[in-house]
Amino acid sequence: MASALVLAVLLSQLGGKTLALDVPKSTVEFRVNHKLHKVEGRANAVEAKAAVGEDGKILAMVRVPAASLDSGDANRDANMRDVLEVGKYPFVVYKAVAQLPSPLPRGAALDVTMKGELELHGVKRPLEIPAKVEIGDDGTVRVRGTTHVSLDAYHIERPSLLLVKLDDDCRIDVNLVMHDAKVLSSR
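-> structure tokens emitted (187 positions)
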């Protein structure tokens, strides 16, 4: 988190804007499949910061406490925390860079590619996420994106049910609403 804050401070000193997450309006959801059923869940605690430079460059960081992942089934969630080894790897972290046009067009939905690195289960791997960025007339920034990660690639042992392992693919849907950090802190 410190690196994102340092980047945000640097960009703000260069005339950029620091964005903070509007937690109640933001979601990070996941989906995994097993031959017998689908599991959907969400992160109940999400942290995010972004810095937008005057040139439209975005530096962003999203951090999710792994223990906050919730599928709605307490037993399954306890097993998920064991598999993710949340005591050893407490956070899922995504750091990314993207480029928006400058000046930022208000009221437009822009397709961007977030180019970054996902740290999950102690493993860091590059990950690009196609996203739609909408900039509201009031300066609100909404980022929506979907990506897929391989559980095997992050050395996550896939649980089995009736001798059949969970599919390797985990879909992650992100819907983040961010505001100017100065405005959000004054609310």
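The chain has three helices and 13 strands.
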